[in-house]
Amino acid sequence: MVPSMFRNGIFRRFLATSADNIAKQQQFNVFDRTAKLIQRSRTPAINPDLSRKKEYLRDEVALRTIERLAFITRDFTNVLDFGSHSGNLLKNLCVDTEAPPNADFAEIEITKQLNRDKKIIRSKIKELTMLDSSRELLFRDANEPFNKEFEGKVIRTVGDEEDFNHEVLEKSDQYDAVISNLSLHWINDLPTTLANINRVLKPDGLFMGTLFGGDTLYELRTSLQLAELERKGGMSPRVSPLVHLNDIGSLLNRAGFNMLTIDAEDIVVGGFPDIVSLCDDLQAMGEQNSILSRAGYLPRDVLLAANEIYKTMHGEKDLDGKITLPATFSIIFMIGWKKSDNQPKPLARGSGQVNLKDVL
């Protein structure tokens, strides 16, 4: 029989460890993942056509990701699309982009080059694994005609992006590239997720990701805050907290990536007649608020006040003189490479052969 003192010591250590684990989990629980799954799955399940119509933002970001991938000359035999949604990356790789109706010569040539790049990138990918937590969204376009244009193998896997115990994520050093578009901003423990992405990459593997930056929807955020201050005397968290551009470099370095490339672009979507139309689009995208401390509903008087504040502070006049509302989405683009012995390394300090003064 084990002495009671020894048993009590183990018990105390077990309690301490459990308390530490619980505290660590609670520390990162900002978003309600269950609510987010419901939000993302509702529109694809009920109205797939509306879901496709409202994916203009993800499609645009997928195109800009493809433009960046075109500058990387290596082959990507095995690629993971992490948080793939309905497969916006795959769709935009397989569907040719059309030039605008009144495009000039330069725009036409850029469009032709983009379509050539799509064909080259498609030929490099032999196996594409798509991982997403929403089954309804992941398989929504599985039978669409564009899938036939992709000659490689496509694997669709349903699984929570925060859980790396899935079969496609258990093995380390297995993917040549991991792409993640507009999915990481709903992750509670982003540092751990980035570290796991680094783990599943092969040495010298590529990670290319995008997420919404901290200035996203600043028009909506400020309008709601001012309206609640006016009507309620306080503010509720109506818009989710987002990562800022200055934090991305340290996050990627902590996760083990090097040779980083980070930039940001603003995509402004205009023409919303009122704040309700904007919120309807966000809901159809599954991008509405899902933080744990979110308020239950938005009172009508606050919504009306926010709409007028939005028009006054940020409204734009269209050709007919009607005021419409713009929405700014700040997109952070990040590229990182898993460390490898054959990567370029900086020369030792003081080994330069040319005096910088002579060059300048």
Explain what the structure shows.
The chain has 360 residues and is of the alpha/beta class. Helix 4 (56-69) crosses helix 5 (88-94) and helix 10 packs across helix 13. Strands 1, 2, 3, 4, 5, 6, 7 and 8 form an eight-stranded mixed sheet that branches. The chain has a domain at 32-216 and 243-267 and 331-340: Vaccinia Virus protein VP39 (Rossmann fold). The protein has helices at residues 4-28, 33-46, 48-53, 56-69, 88-94, 105-124, 135-138, 167-170, 190-200, 218-232, 245-254, 275-285, 300-314, 356-359, and strands at residues 78-82, 127-132, 153-158, 175-181, 201-212, 257-272, 316-317, 323-338. The protein starts with a helix and ends with a helix. The model is unreliable at 1-26 (pLDDT under 50). Helices cover 44% and strands 19% of the residues. Helix 9 (190-200) links the parallel strand 4 and strand 5 (201-212). The protein contains 14 helices and eight strands. It is globular and about 65 Å long.
